[in-house]
Amino acid sequence: MKPEIIRTVTLAEDGAHFIADCATQSIDDYGHFRLCLSGGNTPRAVYAALALLDCDWSKWIVTFGDERCVPPDDPQSNYRMASEAFLLVTTPGELLRIHGEHPPEEAALEYENILQQVAMRFGEERYRHDLILLGLGEDGHTASLFPGTKALSETRRSVVANFVPKFNGYRITTTYPLINAARKVAFLVNDPKKAHIIEGVLQRDPAYPASGVQPAMGALLWFIGK
Ligand code: 6PG
């Protein structure tokens, strides 16, 4: 399916309203809204704008697309960033955190099992998000799917511990099988320096891991800051 591209000077507000609209639709359709959060810096402003909206937060099931291998109160933690930006003021019905403080493989297996338990609750073989938010790195990575890393070739598991040589350390990341099972995937990019990378991903350049995000039965959107 061809991606939908939204170019905007108000990425935070537009992204927030898009997420809220997806939530309304999912809650109408399924009684809940399963949202997967992106890490990094870009989403912080989107999450802060989202916190100002009037949503039925109790019906939200929030997961994370990746996590650094740090405790939840570490400045590097994606959970901490999202908590400060909106989770603490909205209190979603279910918040499924990746335990970055645990040994990487243990944390990945734990999260895989948590998602699998919820998937079984919904009668699914693999957890199916209503919406996954993703960022784009300057090397074309997304979540913690970095160029040349093992997680890129994962075809079975939904969550893995991925060794990233540039950090000489592990990240916990969701995989293409989980990401591409989503009903909707939305990239949030607000950096003009990434314009050429976006073009490469839109052309499906395999050098960029974000090119592998091709929802099998879902929509793909790009919110690009102008
Ligand atoms: C992370 C993210 C990562 C991020 C990109 C873009 O844990 O850092 O999952 O994939 O989305 O690196 O980050 P910015 O939005 O801060 O540029």
Structure description:
With 226 residues, this protein is of the alpha/beta class. The chain has helices at 11-30, 42-51, 78-90, 104-121, 176-179, 195-202; strands at residues 4-8, 33-37, 60-64, 66-68, 94-95, 131-134, 159-164, 169-174, 184-189, 219-225. α6 (195-202) links the parallel β9 (184-189) and β10. The chain has a single domain (4-225), classed as 3-Layer(aba) Sandwich (Rossmann fold). α1 crosses α2 (42-51). It is globular. The model has no long low-confidence stretch (mean pLDDT 98). It is built from 6 helices and 10 strands. Helix content is 32%, strand content 22%. 6-phosphogluconic acid binds at residues 38-42, 65-66, 78, 135-137, 141-144, 191.
Topology:
Blueprint lengths: L3 E5 L2 H20 L2 E5 L4 H10 L8 E5 L1 E3 L9 H13 L3 E2 L8 H18 L9 E4 L24 E6 L4 E6 L1 H4 L4 E6 L5 H8 L16 E7 L1
Parallel strand pairs: 1-10, 2-3, 2-6, 3-5, 6-9, 9-10
Antiparallel strand pairs: 4-8, 7-8
| Terminus-to-terminus distance | 24 Å
Please mark out the parts with pLDDT under 50 across 5 or more consecutive residues, or reply none.
Answer: none
Assembly state of the chains shown? single chain
State the domain count: 1
Annotation, overall tally of beta strands:
10
CATH topology annotation: Rossmann fold
CATH architecture designation: 3-Layer(aba) Sandwich
Radius of gyration, CA atoms, in whole angstroms? 16 Å
Largest sheet: 7 strands, parallel
Average pLDDT for all residues: 98
CATH class: Alpha Beta
Shape: globular
- Strand line-up across the major sheet: 1-10-9-6-2-3-5
- Give the % helix: 25-40%
**Molecules bound to protein:** 6-phosphogluconic acid
Query: How much of the polypeptide forms β-strand, as a percent range?
Result: 15-25%
Count the DSSP helices: 6
